[in-house]
Write a structure and sequence with these properties.
single chain; about 450 residues; alpha/beta; seven-stranded mixed sheet; 20 helices
Length: about 450
Amino acid sequence: MNRSCSSTNLFLLALDSLSVYRNLLEDSVLRKLRELLAGLEKMDLQLRDIVNDYNDFYFELVKCPGLSLPHHILNQLIFEENSFSFNAQAMHLSMPENALDQAVANDLKNLETIAKLDSTTLKAEIAKLYKNNSTENYLQSLPDWEFSPTLLANREPEHLRALKEKFLTSPCWGDCLQDLKEFHRQYGCGIFARSIAFIWERTEGRGSLKCVERPDPITLRDLVDYHDERSRVLENTRQFLKGYPANNVLLYGDRGTGKSSTVKAILNEYHPLGLRMIEIPKAFLADFPQILRLLHNRSQKFILFVDDLVFGDNEENYTSLKAVLEGGLESKTSNILIYATSNRRHLVKEYFSERAGLQSSNREEEVHAGDSMQEKLSLADRFGINVVFSSPDQKQYLKIVEGIASRRNLAIDQTTLHKEALQWALWYNGRSARTARQFVDWIEGHLAVH
């Protein structure tokens, strides 16, 4: 057999020819495929080694939804972050093509070639190397996959399905370059094109972003009452998304009044406009500089969400947050806002001993204790907008219960609903929007089983 003209050699050449998308060679599926194809080019390779490489590749491929090589390759190239995708997310479509575009178009053609590789073709190439009746049946029993241009039934967003369909129905993947550019320009690249919500976490002392696979689905429509409070946050968010000046926001007040739910509902409302949200645990606020550098030059708008914010005495994280709010040498860029929630108006704990220090003769007390105390109490003022969420009175509480029950179409008379709702608040967490929702969850289940 002339190896220079074999199908396996052409597929291997397509993989080796990747330039801008060369990182895809580190993907487990494509790495195992390359090892298999490279093995078939060796003159002295044993059949046992080929079978082993074949099954190593299949083992990785079978983890992919639908056992589809083209869909896996499309997922990799769509969410790849490289010089092309990073630049495309910040460029206008009318910009002229350049040498990088031509390299990407060639990569797309090569990836299409690889995507069309099926098990029938590969097993036929292996059979040419081992023309032996005793091995023919064995080779044919190797597991199969095939090229399928049809889309898989899944829960992917419409814009992602549309892009994949564009590729799978195109006579040449290289012709989809502009569609790919538009995707990156509108939805970003890398991890920020894959998800809308993230959590900052630390592993072995290093900080990184983790995608939230299933963000809280709560919507603004699900939130009853507190319209005036919520409208201020919504207006600020819309200004931010349109590129106008906007403020950091502190939502504080009684527990269970919907502060955190408001922030999460804002993400679900506005993520189609390029909004992304990163939740930062209070313990990791010192990582703000690292996060700011990560988000620099991104086309999306980011809300950094800090939930249940309160500081103890002398916490370094207080200083980190204060520096970001005020703007230091490395201040946050215009595509970033901070939204924080707290049950306290005074975010930093203050002690009576500090007030005593104002008139103390103790040598260990700070001379200018009043300055330190005022600095602590002023942290909330460094947020441009403060919104207060207070516990509802009985009338407002029942109105919230009625609103939630109505949207769930519960078959229960108002008198009974009010009576049970008040009893629930008495037994459990008092009157709040959270208590109202917990009560309606209970009564809905109770009505369903009785």
